[in-house]
């Protein structure tokens, strides 16, 4: 994880982390709690000066009998390795794309961002021994999650090559840094392990892409069903076991199969006393990945990948070694890169059945998709091979195994270059159409009615779009704009690259290696 200079805001954040570091005294004095029997750190013993209404960056050390020593920045440097710090946005970045280039060659697919974030959160369950997690993509989101873990006292080390070691045996706080949690959606997931392990936790409301209201009602009701009392105060969710000891297994039916709520409740139930039954849960592969990780740590989870989870709580989970599955959304994005440029590329590693929806749609459009070996997929949209240009199609997003909402923008960009009319219905998030206006600037003929877009087709084999400056407003929408730029005539400048950096590892180097003409331009951040 590379070093970059920090923004003022991040400097302040880091200062907070430095001034109130994980308290080694407190850590060593806290026995690793047997969830249903031993005492837990007491949030209510926090002095008034550090109570809920305190400054948002205040941490709640677990043991308050001794004040943590204040560290000078230089002393702090010895406890916070520089290479593991969050990168700063000291610069604005834009991607400058020259369109009309054909792609060829092979691209390596990184580990899944969303699975890695969930498993990193899940590593807080490991009260005995470190978790060794392989295939963690180097992204600003995974670095932020590392900061969230560190802010409660976990040790997070990057061992190189995508291997991250998290030692959460000595957690020293049940309140992760609100600033870090507020940057990403997945930061909120640590609520599950913290409350299950310590009987209480206080976590700020999450961040993430602005693609809808993204409420947390399912988390709240699910944790209540496991015997927790949940309060929202001053932008933070405070959860404690109602019996003062630990969570109790229970039954909960999710009104909607939310990925994050399923993951949070799965982690919580893994350490609750007794059996929990969670129904209508998310079946996304990333949820199954988290379940596999927890099982490797000693959890008892049946039904991962199905709509019902039966979880028998364990008193304590231990560390384990685990490898993150390949990122199906990154794979889908590169499949669109090939299709939108009417090219032929191969990608690996992939798990083909994770991609069946995308393969189905791209085949309908006229692409030829071939399994070239275990985990190696080839996609060709070269007109000579496909027997004509690509045709539009109907697409509706829905929870897995439906079409992923995280690929809707990229597929819409593709449809803007296909023949015939297409319809795109977004059913997961109510406000995930920011890319439409930017695609329209490139000349895409899209009419938006609420969350449904009518995409008009183009004449065969003509360049559908023409480049101009545009800006990403969210992660997947940003990727869609870059793809559209690759299909557009002339130069497209895509601003807001920080959104893309949240979720794509080496995005432009990978595109460059396939033959795209793309470069990153860096300008000083005018806000600093
Ligand atoms: C996760 C993914 C995100 C993906 C999304 C849907 C991570 C870090 N992010 O986000 O990339 O786009 O799944 O596949 O894994 N909802 C409620 N109440 C709740 C929770 C959710 O109504 O308590 C609704 C949301 O508003 C949304 C829908 O459920 O309309 C899906 O959201 P959810 O599955 O929770 O997405 P995330 O976990 O936030």
TrEMBL record:
SUPFAM superfamilies: EPT/RTPC-like. Its main location: cytoplasm. It is found in: Cytoplasm. GO terms for biological process: cell division; cell wall organization; regulation of cell shape; UDP-N-acetylgalactosamine biosynthetic process. GO terms for cellular component: cytoplasm. Transmembrane segments: none annotated. Its EC number is 2.5.1.7. It catalyses: phosphoenolpyruvate + UDP-N-acetyl-alpha-D-glucosamine = UDP-N-acetyl-3-O-(1-carboxyvinyl)-alpha-D-glucosamine + phosphate. Pfam families: EPSP_synthase (PF00275). GO terms for molecular function: UDP-N-acetylglucosamine 1-carboxyvinyltransferase activity. Keywords: Cell cycle, Cell division, Cell shape, Cell wall biogenesis/degradation, Cytoplasm, Peptidoglycan synthesis, Transferase. It is an enzyme of class 2 (transferase). Pathway: Cell wall biogenesis; peptidoglycan biosynthesis. Residues 98-511 form the Enolpyruvate transferase domain. Belongs to the EPSP synthase family. MurA subfamily. This is UDP-N-acetylglucosamine 1-carboxyvinyltransferase. It comes from Elaeis guineensis var. tenera (Oil palm). The lineage of its organism: Eukaryota, Viridiplantae, Streptophyta, Embryophyta, Tracheophyta.
């Amino acid at each position: 994880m590379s070093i970059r200079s920090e923004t003022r805001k991040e400097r302040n954040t880091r200062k907070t982390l430095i001034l109130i570091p994980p308290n080694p005294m407190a850590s060593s004095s806290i026995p690793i709690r047997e969830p249903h029997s031993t005492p837990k750190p007491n949030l209510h013993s926090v002095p008034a000066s550090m109570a809920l209404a305190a400054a948002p960056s205040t941490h709640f050390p677990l043991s308050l009998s001794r004040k943590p020593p204040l560290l000078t920045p230089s002393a702090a440097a010895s406890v916070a390795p520089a290479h593991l710090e969050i990168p700063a946005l000291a610069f604005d970045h834009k991607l400058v794309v020259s369109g009309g280039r054909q792609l060829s060659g092979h691209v390596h697919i990184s580990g899944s961002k969303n699975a890695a974030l969930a498993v990193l959160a899940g590593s807080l369950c490991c009260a005995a021994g470190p978790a060794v997690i392989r295939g963690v993509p180097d992204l600003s989101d995974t670095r932020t999650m590392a900061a969230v873990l560190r802010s409660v006292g976990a040790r997070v080390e990057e061992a190189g090559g995508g291997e991250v070691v998290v030692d959460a045996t000595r957690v020293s706080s049940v309140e992760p840094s609100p600033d870090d949690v507020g940057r990403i959606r997945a930061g909120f997931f640590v609520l599950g392990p913290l409350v299950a392990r310590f009987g209480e936790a206080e976590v700020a409301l999450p961040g993430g892409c602005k693609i809808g209201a993204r409420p947390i009602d399912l988390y709240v009701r699910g944790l209540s069903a496991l015997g927790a009392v949940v309060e929202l105060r001053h932008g933070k969710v405070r959860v404690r076991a109602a019996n003062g000891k630990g969570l109790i297994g229970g039954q909960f039916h999710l009104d909607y199969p939310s990925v994050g709520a399923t993951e949070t409740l799965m982690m919580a139930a893994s350490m609750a006393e007794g059996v929990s039954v969670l129904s209508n849960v998310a079946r996304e592969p990333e949820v199954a990945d988290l379940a596999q990780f927890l099982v490797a740590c000693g959890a008892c989870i049946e039904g991962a990948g199905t709509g019902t989870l039966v979880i028998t709580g364990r008193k304590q989970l231990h560390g384990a070694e685990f490898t993150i599955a390949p990122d199906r959304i990154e794979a889908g994005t590169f499949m669109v890169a090939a299709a939108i440029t009417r090219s032929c590329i191969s990608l690996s590693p992939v798990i083909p059945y994770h991609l069946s929806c995308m393969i189905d749609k791209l085949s309908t459009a006229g692409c030829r998709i071939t399994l070239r070996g275990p985990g190696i997929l080839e996609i060709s949209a070269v007109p000579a091979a496909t027997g004509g240009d690509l045709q539009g199609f109907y697409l509706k997003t829905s929870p897995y195994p439906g079409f992923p909402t995280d690929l809707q923008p990229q597929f819409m960009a593709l449809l803007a270059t296909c023949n015939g009319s297409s319809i795109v219905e977004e059913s997961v998030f109510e406000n995930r159409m920011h890319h439409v206006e930017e695609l329209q600037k490139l000349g895409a003929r899209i009419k938006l009615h609420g969350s449904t877009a009518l995409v008009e087709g183009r004449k065969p084999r003509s360049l559908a779009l023409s480049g101009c400056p545009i800006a990403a407003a969210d992660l997947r929408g940003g990727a869609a704009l870059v793809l559209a730029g690759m299909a557009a005539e002339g130069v497209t400048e895509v601003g807001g690259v920080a959104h893309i950096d949240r979720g794509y590892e080496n995005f432009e180097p990978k595109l460059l290696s396939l033959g795209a003409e793309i470069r990153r331009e860096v300008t000083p951040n005018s806000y600093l």
